[in-house]
């Protein structure tokens, strides 16, 4: 029982890490796009 709980916790931590990394990259992508728009540089993604 303890092992399964540990595995669930590890999965939860992994999901949180992946979600935060995805959110961070998404935010950086948006900021870069806005910055390029301000400079008048076209960015095709």
Characterise the protein shown here:
The protein has about 45 residues and is mainly α. It has one domain (about 1-45). The protein is about 85% helix and about 0% strand. It contains one helix and no strands. It has one helix at about 1-40. It is rod-shaped.
Topology:
Blueprint: H1 2-39
Features:
mainly alpha, 84% helix, 45 residues, 1 helix, single chain
Short description:
It is built from one helix and no strands.
Number of helices: 1
The helix content is: over 70%
**Please, how many domains?**
1
Major β-sheet profile: none
Mean pLDDT metric: 83
Globally, the shape reads rod-shaped
Bin the strand percentage: under 5%
SSE ordering: H
Structural class: mainly alpha
**E-strand count:** 0
